[in-house]
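Thread title: Can someone regenerate the structure for this chain?

I was given the following input by a collaborator and told the matching structure tokens would be attached. They weren't. Posting the sequence so someone can regenerate them.
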Amino acid sequence: MKDKILEKAADLFLSFGFKSITMDDIAQELGISKKTIYAHFSTKLKLVQATTFFVLDKVNQTICTVCSGNYDPITEIFTIKSMVNDQLKNEKSSPAHQLQKYYPKVFKQLKEKQFESVNVCLAENLKRGIEEGYYRSDIDIDLITKFYFGGNMWLTNHELFPPETYSLSDLKHAFLEYHFRAIATEKGLNKLFNILEK
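Best answer:
Regenerated them for you:
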């Protein structure tokens, strides 16, 4: 039952936002009493926190699956972006922004966990990209990893990128192109142009 609640809460929060979805909404969608939800999660905050890390675990599983595939380093990152976007429903409810605004402690914990995951995954991608000739050999892996993580976090800043002006999907696409143009060799740029043409 706990997993069913988390699955449904994740679906509703990602579709409609953390603020607008109530415990009543989740109970109604599941056809259970609110009391059943409270038996597993004593407050909405605890449910939001558990759901956030439930979704993060799913995202990390997706990233691991892609990383164990046989992709070149550039295709790997674009594939991760596409699959994670699908999982997060293209972030149409601005989950990161809502977490930061209404649940700042959960957002801070999420950011720390995300950085751990991204740091390992991207560092491996960068090393492999250098070895396979897609990325320049003189890049600073630690620095590029931090640039990448920080840049991605800024994309969800509504003051800098108002959602009525910028589509998050377009921003992520532009950010990836910017990232790869900064680190790619000629071989890497050819792969990037090939992906962008598709």
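The mean pLDDT is 92.
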